[in-house]
Hints:
alpha+beta; C8orf32 fold; 2 domains; five-stranded antiparallel beta sheet; 17 strands; disordered N terminus; signal; Transglutaminase-like superfamily protein
Amino acid sequence: MKKVLLIWSFFLLTYTSVHAGNVPKTVQFLFYGDSIQFACNETQLVTIDEHTLSGASILSFYTAIRQKDYSGVLAALKKYETEEGADNWLYYQLVRAVVQQISPKEQNYIRYTLYKWYFMLLSGFDPMLSINGGRLLFYIQSDENIYNIPYRMKQGKQYICLNYHDYGSNIDFEKTPFNEVALPVPQNNRSFSYKVTRLPRFETTDYVTKELKLTIYNQDYDYHIKVNPKIKNLFANYPTVDYSTYFSIPVSNATHASLIPMLKKELRGLSIKNGVDYLMRFTRYAFPFEEDTRQFGQEKRLTPEQTLLYNGSDCEDRVLFFFYLVKELYNRPMIVLVYPQHVTIAVKLEKPVGTSILFNGEQYSVCEPTPQKEDIPMGKLLPQLKNEHYEVAYAYHP
């Protein structure tokens, strides 16, 4: 039975004393399979004029909101985090969902952002705000390598922007510099992590069936996989992170159950070499190739489940997907090879195949999971990569 999280919160209007309408309104919504329920007095909401944004107005907002009792909200957020084992990314998505019910984004974006900032502050994280005119950027302290979104440095600590996408991911910081808003906040030391090791308990009704048609060695295959479109929402604003972080992201239970047993059946009786070769070709031919810039307008690494969801994927996405398949079905050592214009992967087999890659005294066979103009067999590098320098961006050794 799904849990019902009770969040009791009472909001007081800033700048004026309003005590009418004290009967709390109960709001209930589903958050990735869990029923979230809370009550609040709509007339007691802390507010701010988004058209006159300044450091002073944010300070006034903070001065008012810190006098309110949000212990019930925080307790419910922490309960979900503890009972579901929610990573920081999922926890922040819950904060966003709760704030959307309290202070809808479309009604007052500045207030919506400040409520998110405040709840993350109460949760022990170290957030930061910066402004330029009427624009407000919300940062969170993180020690991890994050790419393709802005960050700020303060006293040797890195702060990653959480709402850059709300401004179209397109701000010229040289022409429009943002200034930090100095606030008397507690010195929290909890660093935000983008690692995702557990997914929500999705409802079975969230899933749809996707058909994968492909040909391997002149044999046609027609697979039907359960995929969850809500994965797109969960990772919509997820940044580019290190490969090690991506490789820790699991596939949801229903998708895993529809994909891995089916592949195990196909691999039955095959040697490890031939089985890995099959997985390489499955990854190569199951999805159309599409560059990120054409599909998303910017670089975006897809998780294995996202690769199943989207219509196209590039070389990085296929490396992540192939890694997931090999780890699940054979659990072999693997290395990710990053070239200036390409990413591929190599697997340690029982015996190396073709021209192998030597890494830490072990031989790895290249398995090219991205479709090419010619058929690239296992153990062969793309001709244009033979004289290119590469970096081992990630090494997996079970």
